[in-house]
Amino acid sequence: MNQEEPIRMPQMGESIAEGTLVKWHKAVGDTFRRDETLFEISTDKVDTEVPAPRDGRLLRIEVTEGQTVPVNTVVAWIGAKDSEAPSASAAAAASPPAAQRGASTGAASEPARPARPAATATATAKPPRSDSSREARLREKSSPFVRRIAAEHGIDLKSLSGSGTSGRVTKDDILSAVAQLEARTPAAGVDRVEPMTVMRQKIAEHMVLSRRTSAHVSSVFEVDLTLVRALKDALAAEYQEKHKTKLTYLPFILRAVAQALREFPLLNASVEDQRIHYHGDVNLGVAVALEEGLIVPVIPKADQKDLPALARAVQELAQKARSKQLRPEDVQGGTFTVTNPGVFGSLIGTPIIHQPQVAILCIGAVQKRVVVLEESDAIAIRSMAYFSLSFDHRLIDGAVADRFMARLKSMLEGLDAEKHE
Question: Would residue 420 show up in a list of annotated catalytic residues for this protein?
Answer without folding.
Answer: no
